[in-house]
């Protein structure tokens, strides 16, 4: 059995250093509050990108060590048999760079500023759209999958390991949609446009997607109600990404059963804490 790195609450390598590469400006914060997202935040160095790419490649092998530690693992979550979307949760437990990125000073400082306080880890995700046949991630709001935790004080950071462009399926956001109410939860890798059927006429009028093209190593941050999704990768380049999801410290469980597969239960009304939900610190 692989070493479970969830027992380690702090960096176990020196890969991410001690000082942020980038600090958010007042303009970043104002844009986040106005639009519900910001993009183009430099989070990774070239060395960090290569280390994370190597770990992701290892974890995409069918016989990789640590398979028993995933919260979820989908070699292909796409509902279209002609496309592929690799999607997995729990990589921080399996490999050192994927573990240590949680404590990246750049990430933690930015997340603390956007959530106005100390942050606690919720869960991570890995996404890979291979060249030529990478599948969609349907329009959705992240909090529609997270209502088992309250109050809604969550934040998502999407980090590209490749240049993300219109051709290879970059993330699109609907600016201002973070002010919409919670919408029904779609199938994540299903019909790209399914969400339109539940939008009001006013929401449809405001549905003006903005692509968030970024260089490898850059990140976007978005609000838990931000409507976002990504189209197919039909290019000759992969589109790989790490997603880090955090909550402001004090967020509580709203169910008595485990919040993630294979994780110790946090009783309803109790704050997230312990081995699987470490406090992150800048």
TrEMBL record:
Needed cofactors: Fe(2+)
Superkingdom in the source lineage: Bacteria
Assigned keywords, A-Z: Dioxygenase, Oxidoreductase
Gene Ontology terms, MF aspect: 2-oxoglutarate-dependent dioxygenase activity; iron ion binding
Keyword Oxidoreductase attached: yes
Name used for this protein in its record: Phytanoyl-CoA dioxygenase (PhyH)
Organism of this sequence: Botrimarina mediterranea
């Amino acid at each position: 059995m692989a070493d479970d790195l969830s027992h380690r609450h702090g960096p176990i390598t020196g890969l991410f250093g001690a000082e942020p590469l980038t600090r958010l400006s007042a303009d970043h914060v104002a844009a986040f509050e106005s639009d519900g997202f910001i993009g183009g935040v430099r989070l990774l160095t070239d060395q960090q990108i290569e280390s994370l790419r190597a770990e992701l490649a290892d974890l995409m092998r069918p016989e990789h060590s640590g398979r028993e530690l995933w919260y979820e693992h989908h070699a292909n979550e796409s509902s279209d048999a002609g496309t592929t979307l690799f999607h997995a949760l729990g990589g921080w437990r399996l490999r050192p760079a994927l573990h240590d990125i949680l404590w990246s000073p750049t990430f933690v400082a930015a997340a603390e500023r956007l959530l106005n306080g100390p942050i606690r880890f919720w869960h991570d995700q890995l996404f890979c759209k291979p060249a030529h046949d990478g599948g969609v991630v349907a329009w959705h709001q992240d909090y529609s999958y997270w209502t088992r935790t309250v109050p809604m004080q969550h934040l998502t950071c999407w980090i590209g390991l490749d240049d993300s462009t219109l051709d290879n399926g970059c993330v699109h956001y609907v600016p201002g949609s973070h002010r919409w109410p919670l919408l029904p939860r779609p199938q994540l890798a299903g019909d790209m446009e399914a969400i339109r059927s539940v939008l009001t006429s006013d929401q449809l009028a405001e549905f003006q997607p903005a692509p968030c093209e970024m260089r490898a190593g850059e990140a976007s941050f978005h609000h838990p109600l931000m409507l976002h999704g990504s189209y197919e990768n039909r290019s000759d380049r992969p589109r790989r990404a790490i997603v880090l999801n955090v909550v402001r410290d004090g967020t509580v469980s709203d169910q008595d059963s485990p919040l993630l597969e294979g994780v110790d239960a946090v009783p309803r009304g109790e704050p997230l804490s312990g081995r699987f939900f470490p406090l992150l610190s800048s």
